[in-house]
Amino acid sequence: MTFLDMLRDAATQNNSMLCVGLDPEPTRFPAGMQGDPHKIYDFCAAIVDATADLVCAFKPQIAYFAAHGAEDQLERLMQHMRANAPRVPVILDAKRGDIGSTAEQYAREAFERYGADAVTLSPFMGFDSVEPYLRYPGKGAFLLCRTSNPGGDDFQNQRLASVDGQPLLYEHIARLAQGPWNKNGQLGLVVGATYPAEIERVRAIAPQVPLLIPGVGAQGGDAAATVRAGWRKDGPIIVNSSRAILYASNGADFATAARHEAQRTRNLLQAAIP
Q1: Please, are residues 37 and 68 in contact by the beta-carbon 8 Å criterion?
Q2: What is the pLDDT of residues 32-62, one digit of tens each?
Q3: Which superfamily, per CATH, for 3-271?
Q4: What is the reported pTM?
Q5: Are residues 196 and 213 in contact, defined by beta-carbon separation less than 8 angstroms?
Q6: How many angstroms separate the CA atoms of 84 and 45, rounded?
Q7: What are the catalytic residues?
Q8: Strands, E, within the chain: which ranges?
C-alpha cells in the first residue's frame, strides 16, 4: 500500500484524523522511567499500544531520539509499530533539506533504515533537494509550508516578485506541491494549527494534497478551527498532538491517560467536520 492508501485506510478504520507525535523527553517520563534515556523505547511503545486504534498516523521526531543516542531505540520502535499497528502509517519528522548525494542518503535513512512511510522536508533548497525522496514509490514527503512557530513569519510570510502577482512564500510552496513538483502524487504540506486562516488559504491553493497540521494541544492550536479550515472530502488532514497526549499523566497510569486524551482529541476533531 502507498502512504496515501495507508492514511485513508487508517483514517476510515479508526474514524480519526489524529496523529500522535512521539517526542520523548526522559525528564518528563513517569516514576520508574524518569530521567532514563534507555527507557525511550519502552515509553513510546506503551503510548503506541494505548492509542493505535485512535489515530490515522504516528509521527516520531528524530531529534528526540538522536539527542540521546537512541537511534537504535527508534529502529526498535519502528519495528514495534509495524508489528503491532501495521495499518497505521508512520511519518518520520526529520525536516531534512539538502541536495544531491546527501539528500539521497537522508532518503535512504528515512525509508530504508527506519522504514518510514513518509518524511518531513524543508523545500528551501529547491526541487532537487526533494526529488531523491520521490524515487521511493508510494512514500510520502511533507514540505514545510506555513509552520506553527512565530518565527515562521521571517520567511514564509514574505511576498515574492512573480508573473502571477506577489504571492507569499508559503503560497508559492503550496502551488508547487499541488502542481509541478507533485509528479507522482507523493507530496503533502506542513501547516501549523496556530494559523487557521493560513490553513484555509493553503487548502484553497492545494485542495487535494494531505496537510500535516501540528500545533494542537500544548502549542495552543484550536482543534475545531483547524478542521473547519483544512478538512475537505478529497483533501485529508493529519492533525498532530504530541505533549498533551504523551504527558497527560506523570504517574504509572501514563499510557491510560494518554489514551483518554487521544480519544478526547480525536472526538473533538471528528465533531468539527462540516
Answers
A1: yes
A2: 999 999 999 999 999 999 999 999 999 999 9
A3: Aldolase class I (3.20.20.70)
A4: 0.95
A5: no
A6: 10
A7: 95
A8: 18-22, 57-60, 91-96, 118-121, 140-146, 187-191, 211-213, 237-241
